[in-house]
Input
Amino acid sequence: MADSALSGLVVLDLSENISGPYCTKLLADYGAEVIKIEKPQTGDASRRAGPFPDDNPDIEKSGLFLFLNTSKKSITLDIEHNIGRDIFLKLVKQADIVVENFTPGAMARLNLNYEALTEVNPKLIMASISYFGQTGHYRHWESADIVAQAMGGLMHLTGEPDREPLKLPLSQAEFQAGLNAAIAILCAVFYRDVTGDGQYIDISVQEAIVSILEGAISTYSYSGHVPNRAGVRHRYKCPSAIMKAKNGYIHMEAGAYWEHFAALTEAPQLMDPHLASILRYRYVDEVEEAIRTWVESRTADEIFTEGQEWRMPVAKVMGIEELADDPQYTARNFFLDIDHPKAGLLRYPGAPFRMSETPAEINRAPLLGEHNKEIYACLLGLSADELAELKERNVI
Output
């Protein structure tokens, strides 16, 4: 097989938790050599986040860490220590990319900001991910995924119209920022290949959320109208809603085939002129009531199967426990079983996209400091005695 898509790129990953590690996971799974630099003894903060097998906390068994750090190498290094800083600069000299997600100004206080790093590697690409970006009034504010969703406008659009705003589950803002960072880095690599120049990349988690609000911003810009929460319904498509079937839930949508949808759901009243028009979203309660009996009389699987036979975009709302055995995922070999020396055999989501010539190759996440000898001895030429002394002084 040909080299991986990103073979030859060396990435120094200083980031923790989710946004930065997801960015570098994407790079690592597609072939970049990602050297994850962790704090001695404790490592990445996500190592202390669950879930853990048997609910037994262990820094080598965090499900979050294991997922976010596949295919990487781990070394321990205290970059706040003068010796650690010097070692880091030696690594920078041989790297292509540095990724960090510390509070803005933290790298400058260590004299490890982009200007300092380019003194030893002028072609370096550096990506900094922070909640509000490196500039602006909020740059030093404390934040979290829920803050980014709230201040990015996403929560205003999430939930029932007559209830309080809701946060999307899990860490959607963080993952979106990590994805943006990976794309930006690849753009910078292409630019460097053409011009020979590296560059600095500033990623704001808040801006990552605002960038995916679809037409909400333009709607307000055009008309002054502020879109409100619509619950499970779509603002203009009708029906486009989650409804309860005999067992489980189903998403009902007609697509462009209204006459077929009326026949499928055995609801001839849907062909009344006011319901058959493109303005039917004004009568959404009436539309949903017309099909409710049909939906409640069938299982979610039956509706999904019938809907697809009629070429209707209906969908069964699947539980997490159903995903791994779903025939579509199985046919595409999406899920992977990866064995880890501490956590054991666990199932992981596979590659988010597929490349015909350079597919992803996803390997297990590293143990804390697992690659110290490889990187420090083989790459930097440090002796066993030097490594022992660095470990004794808690530098590594």
User: Anything to note?
Assistant: The chain has a mean pLDDT of 95. The chain has two domains: 10-212+332-392, 240-244+249-316. The two ends are 36 Å apart (CA to CA).
